[in-house]
Amino acid sequence: MALTVPASSAPEAPPAQAPETPPARATDPPHARAPEAPPAQAAEEPPAGPPPAKAPSSRGADTRALTQVLFAQLKDLEPGTVEHGRVRGALIEANLPLVRYAAARFRSRNEPMEDVVQVGTIGLINAIDRFDPDRGVQFPTFAMPTVVGEIKRYFRDNVRTVHVPRRLHELWVQVTGATEDLTTSFGRSPTTAEIAERLRITEEEVLSCIEAGRSYHATSLEAAQEGDGLPGLLDRLGYEDPALDGVEHRDLVRHLLVQLPEREQRILLLRYYSNLTQSQISAELGVSQMHVSRLLARSFARLRSANRIEA
Question: Which parts of this chain are annotated as the region Disordered (predicted)?
Fold first, then answer.
């Protein structure tokens, strides 16, 4: 009689195992080795540090777009209101790079850059107050001449210790530009005549402009000349001629003598120009010496009363 084994008590077969891959030997070719599982990729993290800066062209475009939006808002606001002042201040702050760009052109003037930027900001504010967005002009194009003009006015009126007329200063700018152009064209420094012909002015005006362009600061007369080793200007000035006082006195005496009678004029000439004594004068004129003395005293009194300097 055959025994029947219940299904629940039958032994379970072991799970089928995958055949192990034999380890690759050193002699096996690379393609015969088992492929390695790719390493687990770590989760990507954002790079540390500040975000990359925008390109200058992108920043300039953003500034122009922001400026247009702010001017559109400013146009509809009443001057003097809080909102008007807020938008106006935002325009000033957004266009400060324009002022710094203009101020950088004057770095060679040995003036604190903070002062130059402050003066240029005044020009920027004036440009904002005068700008009309409906005219179809970009604000930087409109504002740059105003900013540069304000800075140039500052250097002309406040920095120079030697005052130069405005026309001469503006002509000096033209002379400088013409000099640079002619130097590039000729490959050498141009002459005064060539600059004058280029600008259609006289050579004297060119020399005056060059001298005015160098006259930013006054130099002490006692300061020694740089480079040539010569003494100061004060040591090279001419001495005071004592005969200059005599010129003034003779001119005054000539003016006063014509106011005396002819005989008194002759007596004074004989006494002080011919060096005659009173006795010799009395013999010359046929009068007494006492009378000559009285005439001299009277002439002196008239001369003193007519002398406006002593009066």
Answer: 1-61
Can you list the residues of the chain whose pLDDT is less than 50?
A: 1-35, 37-47, 49, 311
Q: How many residues are present in the chain? A: 311
**How many domains is the chain partitioned into structurally?**
3
In this prediction, residue 196 carries a pLDDT of: 92
Encoded tokens for 123: 């020009």
- Residue 20, in any domain of the structure: no
Domain extent, residue 80, equals 58-159
Pick from 191, 155, 199: nearest CA to 175: 199
Residue 307 in contact with residue 252, Cβ under 8 Å? yes
107 and 127 housed in the same domain: yes
User: What does the pLDDT read at residue 221?
Assistant: 64
CATH number at residue 261: 1.10.10.10
